[in-house]
Amino acid sequence: MRVPAELVGTRVTRTAFDQQVRISFTDHAPDGRIRVDGELVIETPFTLTDSSGHQALVGLR
Prior knowledge:
Elements: E1 11-17, E2 21-28, E3 34-42, E4 46-49, E5 55-58
Antiparallel strand pairs: 1-2, 2-3, 4-5
């Protein structure tokens, strides 16, 4: 079983907003090895709130 790696400090290398929300993450260890290479797929609508309080529904419509 692979132990999940921490996402703090990773780069978001791709986002896609269509029928699904896809966010790809990558990061390298200090020795150059790939530390994180993953994709988060959200298939349920959700609400994002920005720092001013404005909300936007994201996801399936």
